[in-house]
Design brief:
The chain has about 450 residues and is an alpha+beta fold. The chain folds into 2 domains: about 250 residues, Uridine Diphospho-n-acetylenolpyruvylglucosamine Reductase, domain 3 (2-Layer Sandwich); about 200 residues, Alpha-Beta Plaits, CATH 3.30.70.2520. The protein contains 12 helices and 21 strands. The strands form 4 sheets. Strands 12, 13, 14, 15, 16, 17, 18, 19, 20 and 21 form a 10-stranded antiparallel beta sheet that branches. A 6-stranded mixed beta sheet has the order 4-5-10-7-8-9. It has a 3-stranded parallel beta sheet with strand order 1-3-2, with helices on one face. A hairpin with a 2-residue loop joins strand 15 and strand 16. The longest helix is centred in the last third of the chain and has 15 residues. The radius of gyration is 22 Å and the shape is globular. The relative contact order is 0.15.
Length: about 450
């Protein structure tokens, strides 16, 4: 592979080699002979979390549907499967995921490994849908963590209905080296999902599904910031998913995106105003002067979950591209105070910013999740590609948010030092012990993990 940059072309991978295996067996062979190795998904991380001083394994070819279990309402897919691809498959069977990120282009495993979150007061981050995950660990073993160690994990038939099953590579009888070791693990799934690649190379994941549902998306412009803060809980809880967009250039929320449950034949007119904001009559891009063509349909037109929960459409390049991103999650009870603290820096932030998005995420029990044990608000920054300015601003934002113990998004830029970051994760020590159990030689360690976790 020759492409050594991430999606936004703001990070160049330093690994000596990048591999693109097509079978599980090839992954095991590469892991077995590598001294240092990490997995590479759809390259949406803005930092070095997915880099390695040795080998990188691109998961792009491990993107097949492995098992769709209609009885249990679960789906097992290869680690390279993207959300947009899975959505099309699930629609054929009247099934859905309960939550999506703003981009359908990202890989499922990569998003979950970094606690990428989507939005909604009652919606946990994307990793909370995982009921099983499979890793190739440091010794080449194939290990499955599942919600119940007593039940069959992904790709094990047991008593499970295995409809629509596809093979992930050559049959074992045809393989040159069929030494695949597999065991159902009794370790904690909640420690193995948001794992930053520290346990091994994820090769497949099993997700809980729900019946398909329909969403309408209405956008309001110019909601006064002070009104938004004074009515924050009502606004954020007033839809299945709510996003507030601002560029901090005026004391207003530029756009409020309300994604509400609906029916296919919904003809109800949206209210012309919403807390002082005015209903948009045509589709908008959250970034000023950017084309709305790459955004999901708005103006109250009903659409299936995978064509509305995400902000951007699969068939178009998302967002800006030439950008940097950072994001901080704070406990929900401190949301208004945290937003006010950021607003105090508006004059410094605005010249270097495309957009800030504010969203809510429900608490979960995943050890390294940014929403671990706390309902959270995410304050996200999409920056111009201005490295010096952004790196100078991040410590100021982090200092302003420090009274609220922010947890930075693992896959985005931050400067919070390890000694400040680690106490914000009560299960960090248990996670490190889990990682040591499956990576005794530090094969999956990299600079990011050494700097922030170990």
């Amino acid at each position: 592979m020759t492409n050594r940059q991430n999606w936004a072309e703001c990070y160049t991978y330093l690994a000596a080699r990048i591999h693109a295996p097509r079978t599980l067996e090839e992954v095991q062979e590469i892991v077995g002979r590598s001294e240092k190795v990490k997995a590479l998904g759809t390259r949406h991380a803005f930092n070095d979390s997915a880099d390695s001083s040795g080998d990188l394994i691109s998961l792009e070819h491990l993107n097949q549907l492995i098992d769709l279990n209609l009885e249990d309402r679960t789906v097992t897919v290869g680690a390279g499967m993207r959300y947009g691809e899975l959505g099309k498959v699930l629609n054929e069977h009247g099934l859905a995921l309960s939550n999506l990120a703003s981009l359908p282009h990202i890989s499922i495993v990569g998003a979950c490994a970094t606690a990428t979150h989507g939005s909604g007061d009652q919606n946990g981050n994307l990793a909370t849908s995982i009921c099983g995950i499979e890793y190739v660990t440091g010794d080449g073993s194939l290990v499955t963590f599942s919600r119940s160690s007593a039940s069959a994990g992904p790709n094990q038939s047991g008593s499970r209905a295995e409809t629509f099953t596809q093979n992930r590579g050559k049959p074992e009888s045809e393989s040159k080296n069929a030494q695949i070791v597999k065991r159902i693990d009794s370790g904690p799934l909640e420690g193995a999902v948001v794992a930053l690649g520290a346990l091994g190379i994820a090769t497949s994941v099993t997700l809980d599904l729900v019946p398909e549902f329909w969403i309408r998306q209405d956008v309001y412009e110019g909601l006064p910031l002070e009104t938004a803060l004074n009515n924050f809980d009502e606004i954020m809880s007033g839809a299945y998913s709510t996003s507030l967009f601002t560029d901090w250039q005026t004391p207003k929320i530029n756009q409020t995106w309300r994604k509400r449950l609906t029916t296919p034949d919904d003809k109800i007119e949206a209210d012309p105003t919403y807390f002082g904001g005015t209903l948009a009559k045509h589709d908008l891009n959250p970034i000023k002067n950017a084309s709305p063509e790459n955004c999901t349909s708005q103006t109250g037109i009903p659409g299936l979950w995978n064509n509305r929960l995400n902000h951007f459409r699969m068939e178009f390049t998302p967002s800006v591209g030439e950008e940097l991103q950072s994001e901080y999650l704070v406990p929900r009870q401190h949301a208004v105070a945290a937003i006010r603290a950021v607003h105090e820096l508006a004059d410094q932030i605005a010249p270097h910013l495309y957009l800030t998005e504010i969203r809510s995420i429900a608490a979960d029990n995943l050890w390294l999740s940014t929403a671990y044990k706390q309902d959270s608000i995410a304050i996200h920054f999409t920056w111009h590609k201005e490295w010096e300015s952004v790196h100078a601003l991040m410590p100021k934002i982090e200092a302003a948010l420090s009274p609220f113990s922010p947890r930075p998004h693992w896959g985005k830029l931050f400067t919070v030092p390890r000694e400040v970051l680690q106490p914000r994760y009560p299960k960090l020590e248990a996670f490190c012990e889990l990682a040591q159990r499956y990576d005794r030689t530090g094969k999956f360690r990299n600079a990011f993990l050494d700097r922030n976790i170990f």
